Amino acid sequence: MSEQPSPEKILQTGLAFWASKTLLSAIEIDLFTKLADGAKPFDVIRDLVGLHPRSARDFLDALVALGFLERTGDLYSNTIETNLFLDRTKPSYVGGILEMANHRLYPFWGHLTDALRTGQPQNEYRTGDPSLFETLYADPDRLKEFLSAMTGVSRGSNVAIAQRFPWKDYRTFVDVGTAQGDLAVQIAKANPHLQGFGFDLPQVAPFFEEYSTTSGVADRLSFVPGDFFQHDLPKADVVLMGHILHDWDLPTKKMLIAKAFDAVPSGGALVVYEALIDDDRSKNAFGLMMSLNMLIETPGGFDYTGANCSGWMKEAGFSQIRVEHLVGPDSMVIGIK
Ligand SMILES: C[S@@+](CC[C@H](N)C(=O)[O-])C[C@H]1O[C@@H](n2cnc3c(N)ncnc32)[C@H](O)[C@@H]1O
């Protein structure tokens, strides 16, 4: 007997923003950080994070029901996951991307329908600001939030690339658009024979340097300031681009791949990674919605399939091109010169 159709999935997805915003607000008021030193009674938490009596019980119990807090009697505590990943004092904190989601993406996505109709970004562009990166880079607090958000979202794939790429065949690498430098740090930690460069806009330098120093690999990593629209990429055996190509239109994507080709020696490699869309464009919902996020955040950016990227890399001269899954929605495309 076939199952009766149910509206459950439709309703759950349609109202998924309730759960999303409940979690984002808990991060915004630092709830998980304040509970990191142990369980606390309801009254203490209410005062600690400044909740109105009308909201407090429903908010905390909603977080219990969603699986982000535990409650025993009147005591609330973090779960193992929220204690590890949402206490901002721990190096394992991944909330940077969620802080950015709360401040930027949540309000911007409210204008998705406008973006779908007009093809126009819905971030600061709406008020006439020239570019995502210029806006971020004008404000050190926003820049820091953005750079650490990138670390949070990229960490799993960075570790996978550090472990799985055949690094023993190479001696140097450059991570283009390195942000805080987590990919470079993970590669350097897992491969003590390598020297690496992080290439990014000059304003990123202090954040990269602080991060590589606290990670204990600063002796093998250096920051190269530059603008990939104006400058060649630093020469290295392997060029990496994580979440770079999806920010830009097709001519820029191809220009960056061509610059990577010029930067590596014969036998050198380009590694591109993102939430690559599956070739059938029907399974990787995260990758497809990431592309909608690029519609909202950039004038020409879009995500793409492994087959798309392989084609552009072949056109630039790379061969032995292969696509490998990393973690979650992410995959990498590797090409050899
Ligand atoms: C989406 S982030 C990706 C960060 C990191 N690769 C990751 O995957 O987590 C894009 C990066 O490209 C850098 N970027 C943007 N425009 C650039 C330019 N013209 N030249 C060099 N880097 C640039 C930004 O500063 C930012 O660090």
From TrEMBL:
One of its GO terms (biological process) is methylation. InterPro entries: COMT-like, COMT_C, COMT_dimerisation, SAM-dependent_MTases_sf, WH-like_DNA-bd_sf, WH_DNA-bd_sf. Keywords: Methyltransferase, S-adenosyl-L-methionine, Transferase. SUPFAM superfamilies: S-adenosyl-L-methionine-dependent methyltransferases (SSF53335), Winged helix' DNA-binding domain (SSF46785). Residues 15-86 form the O-methyltransferase dimerisation domain. Residues 109-319 form the O-methyltransferase C-terminal domain. This is O-methyltransferase family 2. It comes from Leptolyngbya boryana NIES-2135.
